[in-house]
Batch of 4 targets.
Target 1
Amino acid sequence: MEMRKGNLMSVRTDIKVLDATIRDGGLCNNFEFSDEFVKELYKANIKSGVDYMEFGYRASKNLFNPDDFGKWKFCDEADIRAIVGEENVSDMKIAVMADVGRCDFKTDFLPKNESVVDMIRVACYIHQIPAAIEMIEYFHTLGYETTCNIMAISQASSEQIEDALDMLGQSSVDVIYLVDSYGSLYPENAAKLAKKYLEYGEKYDKAIGFHAHNNQNLAFANTIETMSYGVSYLDATASGMGRGAGNCAMELLLGFLKNPKYNLYSILTFLQDYMLPLKESGVVWGYDVQYLLTGQLNRHPREAMAFTAEKRTDYRNFYVGLLDND
Amino acid sequence: MEMRKGNLMSVRTDIKVLDATIRDGGLCNNFEFSDEFVKELYKANIKSGVDYMEFGYRASKNLFNPDDFGKWKFCDEADIRAIVGEENVSDMKIAVMADVGRCDFKTDFLPKNESVVDMIRVACYIHQIPAAIEMIEYFHTLGYETTCNIMAISQASSEQIEDALDMLGQSSVDVIYLVDSYGSLYPENAAKLAKKYLEYGEKYDKAIGFHAHNNQNLAFANTIETMSYGVSYLDATASGMGRGAGNCAMELLLGFLKNPKYNLYSILTFLQDYMLPLKESGVVWGYDVQYLLTGQLNRHPREAMAFTAEKRTDYRNFYVGLLDND
């Protein structure tokens, strides 16, 4: 255990909890959250001690027609201000996500001192690192905190990962995220990968984050396992709401963390008042057999999402189909 | 990682998978499974490579009125034979559970050579170890394989655990089980406890098992984490069916294990044909916020089970009530 940072009793003041409910959960309901929902989540997060709240994507309106999506796919400054006020006076910081190749980063971002946004999270696949770094440097000059969230890491080679970490290490990025998009990592290899990220993080003075998916019911386990070795930015969502099998549940994470700044009361109230009705309204996410299978096979969950949307339950046929397509 | 036994690619031929669906799942439906259900599960387990199938409890008919329960609370020899035939000709072994203080062990067990049962699992709390050992020695003379499943281990002291392991080490028991009855262990402390069990297991030549509960969505994670350090008897249930938040799901475990003797096809068919209809019929189990809370607080799930039975969703009140009762 000697390589772990702290133990199950210790407070790690370097930990930052980021709520990604509106952003990753938005992938389940086309970003169509009511303002009341977002405002109550904002308040619940503040009271729970959450450090960052991600409001959604700032996607290109040239690529995506705003009529086809809820507003949190675009996160207009005015829409965020309608939730947090003209100034976000809380201690909780505000994040938005910008996908490489899916945003107009040169035109759609104000300088930080004119914005309520604090952090921009740049999401990319590993071959897009140069494009991500261009965006990161630009956002840095605007004055924002930045992260780079390298997605689908379970399909990248060790060499690619090392090259990417080295390039990001030399950039202005603040946080490098390990993202288990396919929910295919086990605690043992998640920890191994995290140690590699942490090695570069130490070398270049970057914090490391972890973003989990729950395909194999391991989102929480992988989050606390990577954390135990030094990962400090931890993504979670209310009820684990997120694409496909969803993410690490905020209620699991906050109940685990020992820092008394975190507490469960407000998030529990939010779950009963807002998350349960959302589920009852027919929005679907969470662990299920079809996601387990794509996770085990280290594959994009798109086939499992289609299986879910069609309300199929023929798991065996689905599995045979996946293997035939392998 | 040097203390781990094998890695994520290796086959561990010492692994034994035990299906506890009828026994732990029986706690969710009063043991009222149809013969068809049990027979199909038996066949699916054999085809999936499962090593042991637990058919239920052999509880005292003096203590419990057979009219009040399904037959798998009692596991009469004739009822098991109705499923497996006069002789269980498969490679899969058959287990039943006997609770200390809740069975008539001197009268209700045939000698092994007159029974289709192979293994008797003796379940006890840590203060009942002497009584458990008396039963184990008796079952040993009858010719059975035996395990001792020490329940609620998260509330025992290190000293108690060491004393218990030392006593069991000197007994005839074959397997000593670490049982996370409250689903309160994290991978980090589950691994620590497992290492202690393994230390005594090595000293006394006993195999070590793990039985997980899923209160914090960690049943699978804790199972594979403890396994990685040398635990070899692994309990799982179809769809994770088991008391309260349920257990480690068989489909997660079989998909993880690298030994080609294990496969997913038959269990997937069983899930779609039998487990989904069972859930739809109104039998309730599985991870939910109320179980997370009792798990985090290291408490018996009884209050969470009552909350579930009453179909309550006022998580916050429930949590306040738990804390007031602490």
Note: The radius of gyration of chain A is 19 Å.
Target 2
Amino acid sequence: MDTLIKPLQDLIEKFRSLDGVGKKSAMRMAFSVLDMENSDAFDFAQAILDAKTKIGICTVCQNLSSEEICPICSSETRDHSVICVVEDYQAVLALEKVKEFSGVYHVLHGTISPMKGIGPDKLKIKELLNRINNEDIKEVIVATNPTVEGEATAMYISKILKPLEIKVTRIANGLPVGADLEYADEVTLYRALLGRRDI
Amino acid sequence: MDTLIKPLQDLIEKFRSLDGVGKKSAMRMAFSVLDMENSDAFDFAQAILDAKTKIGICTVCQNLSSEEICPICSSETRDHSVICVVEDYQAVLALEKVKEFSGVYHVLHGTISPMKGIGPDKLKIKELLNRINNEDIKEVIVATNPTVEGEATAMYISKILKPLEIKVTRIANGLPVGADLEYADEVTLYRALLGRRDI
């Protein structure tokens, strides 16, 4: 026996194609599937298909949604005049956990990245402009990640929104709570100083 | 938005049910599926179903196989009078990699483990006895893992094979190649001393 049996090899390759899964993990997962009850394996396969077919994009905020308009965009208790612009669905989840933001979101589905060949046209920026033109928006909070690409995207958005005379803000940079100055990088420290406030 | 959207939540739970997959990893994998092409996701689902439906057990050695008799058991170049008894398919893969063993295997599908409620009757031990009774077997090498359960299983097998007057051997314990005595545990060192050989 030189190699793995074909259906097992195939399944291992599928697991390996997932983000962050190496050879050993993929094998362990494939064996987990073999150890499953047939019905559980069927449910697993079905869950993959369901995730692809039932999850779409909210026509308003472009966030992942199983409905045409997501629960946040259709909520009457949220402030629809404040839009928080984020990179992805995970960012929405993170911000929703804080339970402090009562506005709505706009999901860009990525950041501008010349290295990966992603220009502004590949992001949901024109959908954002549409919303701003057609709705009564008071503030746009740009909450892309404080990475090179995230900052570039934030800059780009602030520039195209300037002519529209809307308040555009950026989430603060600084030391995370519980951090130690000793271990903070220079850029973070510099920005923490720059963003200092009266106490 | 209090929780994840349902189809995504379902998929994350399926990934979490796999051996060694935590919450964060499961989320990352689920998002990988969402990022896939539809056809890739379909192939993934199909690979899961194929693994469950196309992989059976070799009627001779009980190893995983996509044929009724696995390539090792049907091979004419292997020594069918020497059976190496292992816990699982992974052990067969590991031993095959060494390319030194030319006999055949017998896969127990586990070890005796009173803690998990696994008695000898739940393992493929009677199938092993059948083989020994019906074939011309000269040696049985017990290569279960050197764990408590593996040793107990090895002991059990050697006991039931004793009346049949077959040579039963156990793979050696000792220091792994490249190891350091300083970091070896006492039991391994003790067994390494016990198994010492003339040089």
Note: Helices of chain B lie at 6-16, 23-35, 38-54, 89-98, 125-134, 148-161, 186-194.
Target 3
Amino acid sequence: MKNNIGTNISMTLFGESHGAAVGVVLDGLPAGFAIDTDRIKSDMDKRKAKGRISTQRHEADAVQIVSGFFEGKTTGTPLTLVIQNTNTRSSDYTKTHGRLRPGHADYTAFEKYHGFQDYRGGGHFSGRLTAPIVAAGSICRQILEANGVQIGSHIEQLYTVHDDVFSNDIDVLKDQIHTVNQKDFATLDPQCETEMKALIEKVAVEGDSLGGIVETAVIGLPTGLGEPAFDSVESILSHLLFSVPAVKGVSFGLGFGFANVKGSTANDDFEYKDGKISTLTNHNAGINGGITNGMPIIIHTCVKPTPSIYKEQASVDYLTKENVKLQIQGRHDPCIIHRARIVIDSVVAFGLLDLWMSKNAQGDLV
Amino acid sequence: MKNNIGTNISMTLFGESHGAAVGVVLDGLPAGFAIDTDRIKSDMDKRKAKGRISTQRHEADAVQIVSGFFEGKTTGTPLTLVIQNTNTRSSDYTKTHGRLRPGHADYTAFEKYHGFQDYRGGGHFSGRLTAPIVAAGSICRQILEANGVQIGSHIEQLYTVHDDVFSNDIDVLKDQIHTVNQKDFATLDPQCETEMKALIEKVAVEGDSLGGIVETAVIGLPTGLGEPAFDSVESILSHLLFSVPAVKGVSFGLGFGFANVKGSTANDDFEYKDGKISTLTNHNAGINGGITNGMPIIIHTCVKPTPSIYKEQASVDYLTKENVKLQIQGRHDPCIIHRARIVIDSVVAFGLLDLWMSKNAQGDLV
Amino acid sequence: MKNNIGTNISMTLFGESHGAAVGVVLDGLPAGFAIDTDRIKSDMDKRKAKGRISTQRHEADAVQIVSGFFEGKTTGTPLTLVIQNTNTRSSDYTKTHGRLRPGHADYTAFEKYHGFQDYRGGGHFSGRLTAPIVAAGSICRQILEANGVQIGSHIEQLYTVHDDVFSNDIDVLKDQIHTVNQKDFATLDPQCETEMKALIEKVAVEGDSLGGIVETAVIGLPTGLGEPAFDSVESILSHLLFSVPAVKGVSFGLGFGFANVKGSTANDDFEYKDGKISTLTNHNAGINGGITNGMPIIIHTCVKPTPSIYKEQASVDYLTKENVKLQIQGRHDPCIIHRARIVIDSVVAFGLLDLWMSKNAQGDLV
Amino acid sequence: MKNNIGTNISMTLFGESHGAAVGVVLDGLPAGFAIDTDRIKSDMDKRKAKGRISTQRHEADAVQIVSGFFEGKTTGTPLTLVIQNTNTRSSDYTKTHGRLRPGHADYTAFEKYHGFQDYRGGGHFSGRLTAPIVAAGSICRQILEANGVQIGSHIEQLYTVHDDVFSNDIDVLKDQIHTVNQKDFATLDPQCETEMKALIEKVAVEGDSLGGIVETAVIGLPTGLGEPAFDSVESILSHLLFSVPAVKGVSFGLGFGFANVKGSTANDDFEYKDGKISTLTNHNAGINGGITNGMPIIIHTCVKPTPSIYKEQASVDYLTKENVKLQIQGRHDPCIIHRARIVIDSVVAFGLLDLWMSKNAQGDLV
């Protein structure tokens, strides 16, 4: 409900872009898991703005573990992660907060909170809130990895540039996941990275922005994760993915492509081999009836272009009720998809761990 | 959690395809709402299999209101809807239940429930479970309509056939919603309905099946519905939509099309006119930062082809662990999208009412 | 929330006293558990009104398992229990429903539901709703018993008559639990049963009613059940116990008696013996810091006198807003504590199974 | 679930006694409420250890509002309160943590968390965690007070010393609530305060400790708060009260005294006067069928003696599995009930606000 999610483990998110800090409380984790804090840092770095294609706002993302962590291991009680906000220029916002930025939550926040919201930099609706999500996700992911699960994402499409897609060959896929997880700007084809970056820089000069599509793969999951009806794997993961700012589309396996094939193609035939059952194809992305079948989960997530652009836009001043021409100032990314990718990995990790922590899930955690 | 969903109102789903009955408990409804039971029946009829393009299994979908309904109105206590199962031929299933049907939950149910699941006709995973959802959704929808909200869906794509799309003109859209809600097979273009039905019949002869894409529109919503972070409108609705069997993709507004436009196009500029704020375009589908802005919500939902096909498929017998050739018998739809459309309307209605029942949607205490 | 409770397993309650049926949906149960339906019947019988000391309303409590039960075992999907209402004399109520019965929910239901509640026989607030709770509790209890847990309750006090109390000797306690579970009117001292029944008959003649205190014992629990902070064993069990109509007090171990002893007495010293840690006394009722320590849980629950009495009472007609003299008609128990005892056992069983189904609970289920 | 509670508003608790900080996230609050931070401080002071009768550990309880608070008002997004831990002498604990303190959660924490818990000073099970609860409760209470609700508690019994009880006269009760809220050591009879303090000092010299009973009154509530079945006012409040360390008994109105009266006494007759319905007596403590009837809520809560005593106790070293004689060192209160009183007020305030934030407490949709 609201800023808390999860059934078996839960995540409670708090903070605003220009408040004292942002953070998250992660509850229900198994006790005694040794957390690699360097790994948290490296995951946080993947989210960090870098180079010419990113905002010039340099965030200090030092993650402090405030509770639930003792002598290097989880205690089993609430694990709280806090990231102090620094380098925030509130002066950028105070004068103009009535002027609604198109594509942002400014207007809806005014309506929902009657003007009492912290409007600075998007406040609670800022992408800044994804920082604690990544920190929490990093811990969930480490637990999953210790149980043989690997997660990886890459930018499959950025406007006109298309990357390769994940392989259907499990061994190749494993290598691809390993590869993208080493990169800051995750593409399968290195040439594609160059083109995408060039495109972002070009659009930045125009004062415009871009979005794209992220492809995510998860391998090594046990069968039996997910619940019938309302807690299907797709339901749990989409709920989390649509909580990530700017996400407007989520699909599994063939996704919207299922409209273009017949059932005889859509179905994944079964095969019994080497003592185990698997499917010959994986159009359903490792999920049947909302429950994992042991095959890779393949997700496509569409991230819309950054709403903050420098081009002049038509808008309204909520306070004066005047139509205005809006010229956004400040520091903004012309594209966030390369940063969003680790946020996507993080919520997927949380969702899958939550399902795995259900006692009536098939697979047991180590 | 599992078969219960909702924060302010909740829906608890139960039953199996070939059990005694299927049903739902709807809790938290406002007291004193006069339910139109004929409307429930007409919504149930939209879900019913009809004509040559549908299964020959004729379901008796008489909805009994067991509780929470007194003297024609809701009592405010749990409203329970039960639909008896009739005309179930269990003999069709008992002999062959180890033989896993591709695209179905047979395998994952075996793995999750260790073989104790009711395997007849898909049991708890059957599309039959959408009947009580439609009955519950019909009540939620009536409450929304009494508050000025209209919901409508049509089949935007069926394999190679494409229907028109919903208009950006609110008045035209209102008429379109009215029109599709009158139809059993919902398309905007009547000619398109003829072509789609012909296509379904053709594929049925092949022993194959089809899926498609449903476009859903919601108008008349107040601003301020939805919560930041995890209970965004997109999160709540996608969670419910992916609980509908066969749904594999969900998007809002431009959806995956956001990858093909720049921010200057993606953003919806604001305008103040006749005392109210609205947007000039509606690419974000009436949702900013997860919260409604008063514009129409536009959803695209992809429904995969019916997994039950008559063509021979490769499979495995879970019990004997043998590779087998599977030839599905029984009565099955070559396409379910025309029936799925009302299920989609129903879960959308539930989700929006749930969000509306949040006190801080209005933010007042007394 | 509202009529749904539980984290790992959940129970959703529905129905009214004079509606079509009452029932409950039990979700999250382990799959493959063989339910003894005769045991459900015998538990239901313990709740049933019997003999001269009980109401003359003879309820048909045939429990129908509508879903989640296949070939004699739980399927792991929602298990629904429905009990049809029969022998309801609505005519007793219709004429007088505006006349508020003291001690009942008539007034508060009017206020909460604005007069739309089903007022017949207390509607959703009727003790009739405890029937499905007992049926659900019987299943939870059978699962606990299969895991070595025993639950038993007796009437420790009825007005001026006091029964013996449960023994601190675990072997004696085990026998006592066995004994009370054989009885319809549960006391440890048979002589005490005779006195209590005589007292109830005497008070019935006066047209008055009685309440009392139930003592409940649970043995065989593993250590580690319960959560810190808000899901302590005491929190979970009291939440459920106070959901039972007429319960006004709940305590654990010494309970309110803790006010009369010093810490040196209140504390239970530890002892390591025969390879296990236990406490020398059990004043804290097997619960430290909200988590089970393996010792017996001892609960005291106070059930107030039946609010329905035949003596004339001062009241108000809610509809006419007149002060009236109320003379309750119909069939009512002069005492319900002997029937409440199995309801108490049932909610305790549900609560403990819910805690046990938490993956991070120490003990694993068989 | 676990460390998160609440349906309409929620509270997520985190931290350990000797960790970096303790805190709470309060979500779902109405936006625009002006918080009096001095009031938070004065409520925190009531919880603070003071004078000779309390521990010599002086806690720095400076409450930092990290989020959800902007320009002096609530924003409507998660409000996070953090209290840094200072003056913690970890050295007191490290050497002896295997030695289980009777009456504490040491043993159960070892069993539940397999030894990975933060054992210093009780860790997550420390009374220190009540500090953020009081801070959160102070905010909830301010909101309730702004809506005409008053809450007050006093020590009704401390071992052999008994205070007066709250009056049945609403005007007198109002004054009594005002009086006890002015006091650090809350009794109605000043003479009683002197006797209780003297008794605590006497027992402290013995190296022993005391508990007692707190009586709490709530006035000014609207009718209709609370839900049928599982979210009765008693269920919600007892769930929270039993989450407070050392609470072992909770009752409402006559409580366990209901066993000693007949129905004709237990029932509260109704009266219509000056345009409103009220009851002539209030034995049911303003709650009928789990829902408020507008009369005062009267709660009795039993707090056991402080488990930390200086007398030698028999115990076990969990790590060496040896029986040991335990002599607790460090700084501990001989009695905590005078400090627990504000914690009780706080959870009661949270619970009632949560119920009030339910839309169907008023039942309207728009």
Note: The longest strand of chain C covers residues 150-158.
Target 4
Amino acid sequence: MFETDLIRRLNIQFPIIQAPMAGGPATSKLIAEVSNAGGLGSLGAAYLTPETLRSTIQEIRQLTKQPFGVNLFVPEDATESQATIEKMTAYLNKYRTELGIKENPSINIATESFEEQVQVLIEEKVPVVSFTFGIPSKEVIQALKNQGTLVIGTATIVEEAKQLESAGVDAIVAQGSEAGGHRGTFLSNKADSLIGTMALVPQIVDQVSIPVIASGGIMDGRGLVASLTLGASAVQMGTAFLASVESGAHRVYKLTILSANEDSTAITRAYSGKAARGIQTTFMQEMDQYAGAIPAFPIQNAMTRDIRQAAAKTNNPEYMSLWAGQGLRLATDHSAGAIVKQTMSQAHALLGNMLKLKDKSEEIL
Amino acid sequence: MFETDLIRRLNIQFPIIQAPMAGGPATSKLIAEVSNAGGLGSLGAAYLTPETLRSTIQEIRQLTKQPFGVNLFVPEDATESQATIEKMTAYLNKYRTELGIKENPSINIATESFEEQVQVLIEEKVPVVSFTFGIPSKEVIQALKNQGTLVIGTATIVEEAKQLESAGVDAIVAQGSEAGGHRGTFLSNKADSLIGTMALVPQIVDQVSIPVIASGGIMDGRGLVASLTLGASAVQMGTAFLASVESGAHRVYKLTILSANEDSTAITRAYSGKAARGIQTTFMQEMDQYAGAIPAFPIQNAMTRDIRQAAAKTNNPEYMSLWAGQGLRLATDHSAGAIVKQTMSQAHALLGNMLKLKDKSEEIL
């Protein structure tokens, strides 16, 4: 359990990876706290400039001597007609008026340069790099592996896992439908598959020969041992850390997490243009009624940024993106290190019970 | 593992319940085979007349001396406007023409009498009775319990589980989003919740004091041990038995199951008016484009019956309801008894590995 091949290669103590959670929650403090506790902290760097990415990596290294990971989004070209963009701009103005911010803002849809981000990760010799939304080029994967970086891909169906393995990644995150935040799905016709973790993990494990990391609805020692039982070599937990002391999530976001239930979330494209699971908000519900087409990611993400930021400033959760998974009732406000330790001791106790069960099973089988 | 309180009360050997699967798959042979192998076979009796229900129970008793279960649907009143029904009738005629059956058939939407079905279960002293789509009256639950019947309810969110416990059921099936067939959801505004098994089971276990039965995506010993780890006292498996030797599923249905993948299913109201998970078909895809409102269950179920039956006669899976869960790659055509035994020996072997893991964990924690 604590010595799977993957854990040895990650050079960490416990099979717990903190989900990257781009956009705020995964602070250097959170990442270092998880890594110092024996897990693997991860930085969601998709929205960071190469400069900020580099300085954050150096900041993390000042807080921990342990390994950590960095996650990037594989870029996709998105174009939308002027009409689609103008219609959405007009629709969004209603929220801008309400929030007292400028209407028809000039939207900068330019994203950070993936190549420059990768270059920083290579130069900084980051121990673990994971990718979401696709398969990086064999050159990128090879360049990272050549210097000893462990490369992880994200799959939501078996076929994505197979393609990632062929591309040469070292391990695969199997993202179940329970997971919070953006769906990693990159085979475009499969966006609605939403395979639950219980079904997804064993089917991917059977179809690839590299280690699988279970994610989606895993909140404590029960989810950890269950995932290892399904054949996973480790788990990735995000929602479990969202309201932790070291999380950078907005105070209102944390309070919402701690009061939400398993059925408080929904899948939406309202905020970013890409399917993601978050706590249901007025913004999501109203966008469900939107007559036009929602611009693709990252365009819609850029178009709603000023609204999300203004909502955060005024502590208004209804217009903020409150990414979260379906394990919400099990979220706590403990420190991230305590969450890692509690998860491991619960897992340890469960193994003790399993032992008793085995003795009983001897009598029967 | 094999001696949870629930298993003792069910008086069975292994914590494996075969899902009722109303409408064909759960034959007396399948039920008896599962019960004789040490699990609990279950009859999906929702669509059976009181007479057929009684004779089927007697048939099962001739095939096994072991306990078995019977599942009923808690009835709901559904009414639809003449316009809605006429529009759907006209739409469905296109399939009737193609299948060469009579257009505008007179639809009998009358369902079997729930009271009479319950009366039969009481008279026949059925060991286990489970309910789906709601909470039976306290009188019905008490009448069954008074004669020693173990009563099980079905929940898809925590709140449904709490209400079932208050009503007095003995145990709860926690139906995760991976599950095939009809969603048991009965709190009407929660139909889209679709909580994955990994997230649902521990959250329900924490909120009720009665035993929980995990269902949804559980296909083998890995899913069984994982579910027990999450706090379940047993599992309910349906898709795992659908293509088994003793299953009454149509030959074409079985072949489709054995060739389908984890992402072959979708949630649809096309066949019955109630949300259910099945392998994607032309009928489902075309109904997604249907302009009008789909009549509620059981009206739509009655309106599509002649089409499903004609499709089955002509071995046309595209117009049949192919209910199935997301664990499809793990389905086999073995005998149901072998599936129970294979699941248990795999579970037993997994416990052996857990034991090794525990020894390792000793060194660390």
Note: The longest strand of chain A covers residues 68-73.
